[in-house]
Write a structure and sequence with these properties.
Layout (H helix, E strand, L loop, with lengths): L3 E4 L2 E3 L5 E7 L9 E6 L6 E6 L5 E3 L7 E6 L4 E6 L8 E7 L9 E5 L2
Parallel strand pairs: 2-10
Antiparallel strand pairs: 1-3, 3-8, 4-5, 4-9, 5-6, 7-8, 9-10
Length: 113
């Protein structure tokens, strides 16, 4: 059974915005810290942002001030609002329940003119 499903990726011009969503299948995920990761072609997967069960957030330096992670427990969904996108943000974005092997299938984000 698929536990996490990402959506919201697409093609956007530099300077544009996208909002990614990660829908969880079970309320279990509301008790976990959740994270967004990304993997660009030929590169290792890297952490983008995390949010704790209580709502505390952390961001990787390259996205600070541009990306915002949030969650809606009633909807069992975690979001990643991405503003001022750059070509170097191009990657497949994944969500993960921190400390578990639960990963989504990924959603492609391409930033290009």
């Amino acid at each position: 059974q698929v536990q996490l499903v990402e959506s919201g990726g697409g093609l956007v011009q530099p300077g544009g915005s996208l909002r990614l969503s990660c829908a969880a299948a079970r309320s279990f995920f509301n008790t976990r810290a959740m994270g967004w990761y990304r993997q660009a072609p030929g590169k290792q997967r890297e952490l983008v942002a995390t949010i704790s069960s209580s709502g505390s957030t952390n961001y990787a330096d390259p996205v600070k001030g541009r990306f915002t992670i949030s969650r809606d427990k009633a909807k069992k969904t975690v979001y990643l609002q991405m503003n001022s996108l750059r070509p170097e943000d191009t990657a497949v974005y994944y969500c993960n329940a921190v400390g578990t092997d639960f990963w989504g299938q990924g959603t492609q984000v391409t930033v290009s003119s």
